[in-house]
Specification:
By secondary structure, the chain is α/β, with parallel strands linked by helices. The protein has two domains: about 230 residues, Rossmann fold; about 80 residues, 2-Layer Sandwich (TATA-Binding Protein), CATH 3.30.310. An eight-stranded mixed β-sheet has the order 3-2-1-4-5-6-7-8, with helices on both faces. Strands 9-10-14-13-12-11 form a six-stranded antiparallel β-sheet, covered by helices on one side. A hairpin with a 2-residue loop joins β12 and β13. The longest helix is centred in the middle third of the chain and has 19 residues. The chain is globular, with a radius of gyration of 21 Å. The N and C termini lie far apart (about 65 Å). Bound molecules: zinc ion. The site of zinc ion (ZN) has 9 residues, from α9.
């Protein structure tokens, strides 16, 4: 009986199966439609978050990712297809395009950038919730500080192999990431590049993240339990552990020491990202067309308006408009830096 419902038109029909779900209802739906979510990282977790929240009618989505679509992503990164990988589209841009076609009533903005201490607060400051779709602890601890400082709920999530973990951080009410894990986990952590991943391990974790995001965005934060959820889709063993109250001695949420944010002037020049790849940060924007012409004489070049791919075996460089580059074919930061200088002249 769409005609009896207040919103009228297509949105009523669009969300009818969701508003029938009593804990959300019409009222919760209206709040979702005027809310804003920021998704940090648009890989396996983030592309699922983005798709689910767009379909649920969350009014504004900000999608942040530093990377471009590759063929090895398609197994688990739900939003992308072979043409995105062929074009080498940045994930944030590919995701934005896809979601515009999924739901034209919401605002979707893809931002191609690397989240770091210099930009994180600006990127998240207007969010009603932040979803963690990142793949590393450096970004998570940074987001944790920014979220606590600005009192924004954020939802940690990670998946590798058949295993996943998630916890929702409501600043001031539930333990923050630094309460739960005071130190960055040491040693070599298994990653999707070394231990592999089942696509449903990622979507299972992402589903729990999205469910809590929907509670928060529909005005029902009190329904979020202070729990750490772990699950293994291969063994079929979900476990939920109560995490109690925030640590009264926590550096971040109790003492408000934001050491990572305060280090904003010291942006690292290079970051290891994945297996056999290094990211080199750029200082200023580049002109893709001019660079494409210059590099075209030296190797294979493919470019679009967002990024340029340059292949000079055994290396493959992807250079983004902001001057940042991801260099595949080396684990050596000095080598990556020197390739960057050699081909970009800076
Ligand atoms: Zn804390």
């Amino acid at each position: 009986m769409a005609a009896d419902l207040p919103n009228g038109g297509s949105s009523t029909e669009k969300y009818s199966r969701q508003t029938l779900f009593a804990p959300l209802g019409e009222r919760g739906q209206r709040r979702l439609m005027s809310s804003r979510a920021v998704i940090v990282g648009c890989g396996a977790l983030g592309s699922f978050h983005a798709s689910a929240l767009a379909r649920a009618g969350v009014g504004e989505l900000i999608l942040i990712d530093r990377d471009y679509v590759e063929e090895s992503n398609l197994q688990r990164q739900w939003l992308y297809d072979e043409s995105d990988a062929r074009e080498g589209l940045p994930k944030a841009i590919a995701a934005e395009r896809k979601l515009r076609a999924v739901n034209s009533e919401i605002s979707v903005t893809g931002i191609v950038t690397d989240v770091d201490a210099t930009n994180v607060e600006r990127l998240i400051k207007d969010a009603d919730v932040i979803l963690d779709g990142s793949d590393n602890f450096a970004v998570r601890y940074l987001v944790n500080e920014a979220a606590v400082k600005n009192s924004i709920p954020w939802i940690y999530g990670a998946a590798v192999g058949s295993y996943g973990v998630t916890a929702t951080i409501l600043p001031g009410r539930t333990p923050c990431l630094a309460c739960l894990l005071p130190d960055v986990p040491g040693g070599a952590q298994p990653t999707c590049d070394t231990a592999g991943i089942l696509n449903v391990a990622a979507s299972a974790v992402a589903s729990f993240q999205v469910a809590n995001a929907l509670k928060i965005l529909s005005g029902q934060s009190e329904a979020v339990e202070p729990r750490l959820l772990t699950l293994d889709v291969w063994q079929g063993s979900p476990r939920s552990i109560g995490v109690g109250d925030p640590d009264p001695e926590c550096r971040v949420c109790a003492h408000h020491e934001f050491n990572l944010l305060d280090a904003a002037g010291t942006r690292p020049g290079t970051i290891l990202c994945g297996r056999n790849a290094i990211q080199v940060s750029g200082d200023s924007p580049i002109d893709i067309e001019i660079l494409a012409t210059r590099l075209g004489t030296l190797g294979e070049v493919r470019a679009n308006e967002y990024a340029l791919r340059f292949v000079t075996p055994p290396y493959e460089m992807t250079i983004f408009v902001d001057g940042r580059a991801i260099i595949k074919g080396t684990d050596d930061p000095a080598k990556a830096r020197s390739l960057y200088s050699r081909f970009l002249g800076r």
